[in-house]
Amino acid sequence: MPATRQPLSVVIITLNAASQLADCLASVGFADEVVVVDSGSTDGTCELAAAAGARVIAQDWLGFGRQKQFAVEAAGHDWVLCLDADERVSDELRQAIENSLASTSTVAAYRFARCNRFLGRYLRHGEGYPDWSLRFFDRRQARWSDDAVHEKVLTGGPVATLPGDLLHDSAETLASYLAKQNRYTSLAAEMAVAAGKRASAGRLVFSPLVRFVKFYLFRQGFRDGLPGLIHITIGCFNSFCKYAKMRELALVRESGEPRQPD
Fold first, then answer.
1. Burial of 2 from C-beta contacts in 10 A (0-12 / 13-18 / 19+)
2. pLDDT tens across 79-110, in order?
3. 175 vs 40, 43, 110, 184, 204, CA distance in Å?
4. What's the rounded Cα separation, in Å, for the pair 86 and 17?
5. Tens of pLDDT along 36-69?
6. Which of 82, 173, 201, 256 has the greatest number of CB atoms lying within 10 Å of its CB?
7. Is the pTM of this model over 0.85?
8. Which class for 23: exposed (0-12), middle (13-18), buried (19 or more C-beta within 10 A)?
9. Do 26 and 53 meet the contact criterion of CB atoms below 8 Å apart?
10. C-alpha dihedral (160, 165, 166, 172), degrees to nearest 10
């Protein structure tokens, strides 16, 4: 660790993440503090985090964007690194983060590649990589959006890219992954309709096709074998589902009939 550098807070939002959190915490031992914001775990997540030296805060679920911003505001230092419990900081990325904290750069935020493990394989092509993630920033110059899903960091300052990968090592089953994607597409459709967007027949048909051509062919997702094919197929179906759900919401609004809960 450099002799003098700006202090760093790592913030993590959790819900029943005991099976994944230990490896995440082990990868951020270089941080000056770790803040875990938990939204009701019952599997020992909070106890595990506290035993590892993290400061644990209970907070009811606010949606992804607002929950992450709550965690950022609870941190003790202005430079924050935002992680999920199933992510780990690689050695190369750790060194890059420490070097940036020791520099005199005026950068407001940094992005880096996220490498996703899917069906037992780290994806290195297509939609799964480099999956650029802006997670490391000066909270005085950046913040999380309020989006309930597909949240992003907003900043008016300069953004730079760091070497090294953030390893996303989700242990969820394919069934749970599909269930999560179903929830995400529902939230994304609701947000889009609330913003006044419409789902045309063209988008319904061509959005999945364009996505497949872009990521599986041009970005060479085929090089990731069968996991790469399954990953992009689910991604294309997600595009179709989002626009189909937008059409459904528009019809419900036009008819005035209440929509049945999922």
1. exposed
2. 999 999 999 999 999 999 999 999 988 999 99
3. 23, 21, 33, 14, 24
4. 8
5. 999 999 999 999 999 999 999 999 999 999 999 9
6. 82
7. no
8. middle
9. no
10. 140
